Amino acid sequence: MLQRTLTSELGSHIGERVRVQGWLHALRKMGEVNFVIIRDRTGIAQAVASVSDLAPLSGLQNETVIEIEGLVVEAEAAPGGYELYHNQIRVLTPVTDPLPFSLNKNRIRANQPAFLDHAVVGHRHLQKRAILRLAGGVMAGFRSILGEQGFVEIQTPKLMASATESGANVFAVEYFGQTAYLAQSPQFYKQIMVGVFERVFEVGPVFRAEKHSTRRHINEYVSLDVEFGFIDDHFTVMAMVTTVIRGILEHLRTHYMAELALLEAELPTIGESIPHIHIVDAQQLLRDRYGANDAVGAPDLTPEHERTLGEWARGQHNSDYLFVTGYPMVKRPFYTHPDPERPDYSRSFDLLFRGTELITGGQRLHRYEDYLAAAAARRYDPAPFETYFECFKYGMPPHGGFAIGLERFLTQLLGLDNIRLATLFPRDMARLTP
Amino acid sequence: MLQRTLTSELGSHIGERVRVQGWLHALRKMGEVNFVIIRDRTGIAQAVASVSDLAPLSGLQNETVIEIEGLVVEAEAAPGGYELYHNQIRVLTPVTDPLPFSLNKNRIRANQPAFLDHAVVGHRHLQKRAILRLAGGVMAGFRSILGEQGFVEIQTPKLMASATESGANVFAVEYFGQTAYLAQSPQFYKQIMVGVFERVFEVGPVFRAEKHSTRRHINEYVSLDVEFGFIDDHFTVMAMVTTVIRGILEHLRTHYMAELALLEAELPTIGESIPHIHIVDAQQLLRDRYGANDAVGAPDLTPEHERTLGEWARGQHNSDYLFVTGYPMVKRPFYTHPDPERPDYSRSFDLLFRGTELITGGQRLHRYEDYLAAAAARRYDPAPFETYFECFKYGMPPHGGFAIGLERFLTQLLGLDNIRLATLFPRDMARLTP
After folding, report:
1. B424 → closest Cβ in A23, A97, A156
2. Percent of chain B whose predicted confidence (pLDDT) is above 90
3. Is B64's Cβ below 8 Å from some Cβ in A?
4. Would you say residue B168 has pLDDT above 80?
5. What is the mean pLDDT of residues A1-5?
6. What pLDDT does A294 receive?
7. Is the minimum CB–CB distance between A366 and chain B shorter than 8 Å?
């Protein structure tokens, strides 16, 4: 029997008989001459079929798994540039149920809940699968650039005896008669591992029991986490953020042009460096624009303020990206390092991408006594943190890090209108299947 | 200020003054001439210090974070081959508490529970960190070889509405007023995604609420999962297992020689292919050796039987690895594909490594009606599976796959005596911290 040929390989087999395998993507019946479009993991190809060639497909639906043996012929107008002639079609797995929605149109004609209900087949759609393949590309680009920078990959436990931060918004798990909690982030673990490897990263799920239902939030997502030691301050971390984002974009540009083209996505570029603005200066800029009011005086930025700053970065610095630095300590987790010169402000940052928050990071406390004091100042019971704090007793260098939400990164990069479209099977307050 | 130099880079700076940063690994006081050993992420280096040079370290413990500025001199007898002279030592983060155990001896002098209690610092030990770095290497090698084979990386949800298999041994999670379960494996999801990408892999945590307390089991571990379509049978899967194991070992051999040398680990080799034996023939072989008895007649193999088969593979085939194929259907999950010629036996396999099970895999059912029948035969309620089974309605090719437990792989490869030593922070019935 002939070895299988992928649809992307037809160009190397012109004039030969090949065997392709895949899904019946579409069947165009024109009378005497008909077209069978087959889809495999690399693309689609067209087979020219007589009425009798089609007999095996009688009564079957699209998505039937088939195999076609035929002769490869150049055909400029055909998808991919080749056609199969003198075909023998064989059914591997028949489909008899009508599909929940068509998978071979440019857009899926289903509302979002209906699409998500049937995502187990919906993801076969060419555009949908391109999005998910890019998710793999972002992870690969992330690991690749960090490997070059001497980072070590770790995998930390997702079941913990205590919450990472304040104890709010954690999922509880029955654990052999105790209560465990699902990790909201690998925060303490990645810090601990800075004491071992200096530079670590992790790609893994995090769990947030937040009761919100927005286009931007899901309750389980993939976090790309970075932490490293021997830094000067948060600017060392921001330089690493810039290197990592640049590395990911470069990886996509090199390996994922087909997917990006299919999605008509244009990758942003990053200049020499990403511009930055201190939160105090950002608020002055916002006051100049909106006048002084309560919202502008608040310690945090509203989404509208972020959009305004995004426009400012685009206009002033010709940049899709903007770091906002120095957020007030009250808005940051207790392990955040304060700015020694303005202790109410932090050595932390947000990275805005086109006016929306993409990444949060900063320098962390690194002295044991600072952790005790910071926990006490927020009235946290230090007992659940004791085993984690132990690493700070035994010598931790100045360190910091950041986290990128994979789905958020992809949503913003591709301009998707809902984060649920950037993940395989989203989890939210209303959805636990498929 | 001088840029930081890593201890591994000293050879490029002979005769220059450099600044190294790291942890006080050891201090050898000899009187007039003393040795300060500093450890960074790349290794250790020795600085020759007078009594007055040591003043900043007075009263401080090992693991104090320090910085040394000194002159690089070749010194054959010194660790790494270089020494620092005319040094200035500066303390970055002092350590005043005595360590729970010494980190600079060849072996850690603590029993295993004590080590695990203090793993947040214990992992800094050179041998311990080498093990964990190799875990990163196994993941990288796994991804690299699968990328070459056209596999796409996926990340699937860990919170599910139902158990993957029979519903036993799952952890329950309070999920917004419902009960969710932690995924025991990405089994259904990786099969579903074969319908999208044909070839997928995942690296992620899995959760098993099994009440056992052995050297070989932990309740949360990292699973390296593979699934792919358009296979002939389980032998196609076994060929891919062989390719993947070979790829991982090759990756370690290329990039992790230092860690392997430190651990005195010798990598196994794989010949042209891995030998295989059908379970029926394996049982005949065991009967020939032990005589007919109940244990040999049982559908599964005992650990002792596995060891015997491992010895047989070593003697007969000069192989550390052995596939045992065709396990009885009653011992395999309901989605396993039966052997059409002997329907009581399956198209599945275990891979034994030096006589211990390392990997399980096989061909899966791919027709919707077969799933319904298989679930019914085991008296499973099909309702919770419905959203997953949907993908089989819409055309799935013959497919199969396997899973490698990262920690088990590493434990066996390095000959560790407990799987808890092959992971950062193990989770078992008694341990949920650190």
Report:
1. A156
2. 91
3. yes
4. no
5. 93
6. 64
7. yes
> For position A348, what pLDDT does the model report?
98
Closest chain A CA to residue B389: A120
| Sheet strands (E) in A97-255 | 152-153, 159-160, 172-175, 178-182, 199-207, 220-229
Distance, CA of A280 to chain centre: 31
The domain segmentation of chain A, as residue ranges, is 7-93, 121-422
Q: Do A175 and B171 touch (CB under 8 A)?
A: yes
**Residue A431 forms contact with B (CB below 8 Å):** no
Task: Note the pLDDT tens digit of each residue in B85-96.
Answer: 999 999 999 999
Q: Is A252 on the interface with B (CB under 8 A)?
A: no
- Tell me if chain A has a CB within 8 Å of the CB of B21: yes
Q: Does B161 touch chain A (CB under 8 A)?
A: yes
* A404-413 per-position pLDDT tens digit: 999 999 999 9
Query: DSSP string of A77-94?
Result: TSGGGEEEEEEEEEEEE-
Return the pLDDT at A167. 65
Q: In what order do the strands lie in the sheet with A159-160?
A: A159-160, A178-182, A172-175, B172-175, B178-182, B159-160
- Please answer yes or no on whether A397 and B367 come within 8 Å at the CB atom: no
ipTM of the prediction: 0.97
Average pLDDT in chain B = 95
* CATH of region A121-422, choose from 3.30.930.10, 3.90.180.10, 3.90.400.10, 3.40.50.970: 3.30.930.10
Q: Nearest-CA residue of chain B relative to A143?
A: B140
CB contacts, 8 Å: A156 with chain B: 424-425
Which of B64, B219, B396 lies closest to A395 in CB terms? B64
Test mutation, A123, A155, A256, chain B, max B CBs within 10 A: A155
Mutation site for B-interface testing, chosen from A7, A9, A39, A41 by largest number of B Cβ within 10 Å:
A41
Fold of B7-93: OB fold (Dihydrolipoamide Acetyltransferase, E2P) (2.40.50)
CB atoms within 10 A of CB B28: 11
Question: Does residue A284 carry a pLDDT above 90?
Answer: yes
Q: Is the pLDDT of residue B297 over 70?
A: no
Confidence of residue B167 (pLDDT cuts 50, 70, 90): low
